[in-house]
């Protein structure tokens, strides 16, 4: 069993290797404000980031404030968002969230976890991604890639995203937490895929004890 200090040291080595392997790792959603990121994250659930970016590139010029989104006609948003999976439900979540922003936060996206979690359509992962990327806070956002790769690396033994977040928070330095998530996301898309990870060409295979390593 690794000690906490040993895991922390391994995280440092993993980050160093992944930065070399994925120097372009970043949040793939385009945004210029916390509100834009909130909208993009709601839309991105079970949808491709490039599709979301193509749609928001137009909509962010039209809808600039929480009031704009809240007051938009539902049927108009349905038409504008119909390329997005579950666009009807997401339209509802966006408008409810923006109405809550207007009613409780003067139209501004709050910058604390507890307040973000009061917004319709915002769960812990979305809140942490917002905190890390819109407010530069040291947050761990556990999406499917972060969860899968961290589990395969043995950095956590849990399946629940909240437990994974707690485990990673204990071993990833505060200043590196947002970047660490970006690196795991890119690694999960490019190398450590769900069905057939490309283990032989993995830059961190010597730091990984995943028992089902693939051969190519």
Overview of the molecule:
The protein is an all-alpha fold. It has two domains: 4-26 and 139-207, Helix-hairpin-Helix base-excision DNA repair enzymes (C-terminal) (Endonuclease Iii, domain 2, Orthogonal Bundle); 34-134, Endonuclease III, domain 1, CATH 1.10.340. It contains eleven helices and no strands. The protein has helices at residues 4-21, 34-44, 49-62, 66-71, 74-81, 87-104, 113-116, 124-134, 144-152, 161-171, 177-190. The longest helix is centred in the N-terminal third of the chain and has 18 residues, at 4-21. The protein starts with a helix and ends in a 26-residue tail after the last helix.
What's the layout of helices and strands?
Elements: H1 4-21, H2 34-44, H3 49-62, H4 66-71, H5 74-81, H6 87-104, H7 113-116, H8 124-134, H9 144-152, H10 161-171, H11 177-190
Helix pairs in contact: 1-11, 2-3, 2-8, 5-6, 9-11
């Amino acid at each position: 069993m690794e000690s906490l200090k040993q895991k922390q040291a391994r995280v440092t080595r993993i980050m160093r290797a992944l930065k070399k392997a994925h120097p372009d790792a970043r949040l793939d959603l385009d945004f210029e404000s916390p509100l834009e990121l909130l909208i993009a994250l709601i839309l991105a659930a079970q949808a491709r980031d490039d599709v979301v970016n193509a749609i928001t590139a137009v909509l962010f010029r039209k809808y600039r404030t929480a009031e704009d989104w809240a007051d938009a006609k539902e049927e108009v948003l349905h038409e504008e968002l119909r390329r997005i999976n579950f666009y009807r439900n997401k339209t509802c979540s966006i408008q409810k969230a923006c109405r809550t922003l207007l009613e409780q936060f003067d139209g501004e996206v709050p910058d604390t976890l507890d307040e973000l979690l009061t917004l319709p359509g915002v769960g812990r992962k979305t809140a942490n991604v917002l905190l890390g990327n819109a407010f530069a806070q040291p947050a761990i956002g556990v999406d499917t890639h972060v969860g899968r790769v961290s589990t395969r690396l043995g950095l956590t033994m849990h399946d629940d995203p909240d437990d994974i977040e707690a485990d990673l928070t204990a071993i990833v330095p505060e200043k590196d937490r947002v970047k660490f998530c970006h690196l795991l996301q890119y690694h999960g898309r490019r190398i450590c895929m769900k069905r057939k990870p490309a283990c032989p060409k993995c830059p961190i295979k010597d730091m990984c004890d995943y028992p089902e390593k693939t051969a190519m």
